[in-house]
Specification:
alpha/beta, eight-stranded mixed β-sheet, binds zinc ion, 28% helix, seven-stranded mixed β-sheet, Metallo-beta-lactamase, Chain A, 284 residues, globular
Amino acid sequence: MDISVLASGSSGNSLVVSSDSDALLVDAGLSAKRIQSALHEVGMDAERLSGILVTHEHSDHVSGLGPVARRLGLPVFATLRTHEALRSRIGDGIDAVVIEPGTSHRIGGLTASAFSVSHDCADPVGYTISDGDHRVAIATDLGIVGRSVRHHLSEADCVVLEFNHDERMLLDGSYPWALKQRIMANTGHLSNAAAARELVALARGPLSVLILAHLSRDNNTPRLAFETAVGVLEKAGRSDIHVLLAGKGETLGPVDLGNGTCGRGRRAGAGRVRSKEMTTICTE
Ligand SMILES: [Zn+2]
Ligand SMILES: [Zn+2]
């Protein structure tokens, strides 16, 4: 199984998980044109996609959803309340499939399950996607990690986890206080420190690939997020875990979950990263 991140962060989110036979897009927060060019960049034939899973209705996750779904003829999977929130925004001609938290859907050779997360929108979810051999868990846009989220993350060998902000940078930064409060709320975004706390438990499980995602451009740096994650994992004796950074305006992948390396794609994106390689990746 492979995973590629087409974009990550407040300017747009989309990733693709694929097995030998099937592929699923998760979110479509870029224009249809940019999604298609990013798919091309990571070596993914759009014809192989079987559907689009939507986490929530914020525009950085759905801005290209309608056009992509119509152009590629793909069903859109989301919770009922997310579909309702999207209805007026993505137009007609969409094959809307309801996926409720706690249920699994077999989509081609892949099994997708949604789990509820805490975020300021109608009915936000994360997803796990499995081909029977590997399991990817995706959790971005969440203010806190509850017991159910923790459980889903702990069963995955690849976790895409939000490392949104450094709390000190956010507090000292120029955002209005109301926005700072929104980001720090239980329905906001996960800080580096909060995400790192989860890694302590994940380090005891099957985790082999960790992708740091949804980094704030203003209130975080790739280096800070990376060093926070790697520091925790090394302390837990898990320096074998591949830590990768998504975003930075580049695609990442495809990352082969068999060995954690960026393989067939044209660009390795933000990095195939181990701690010793970090200096070559985050030099800004
Ligand atoms: Zn977002
Ligand atoms: Zn959001």
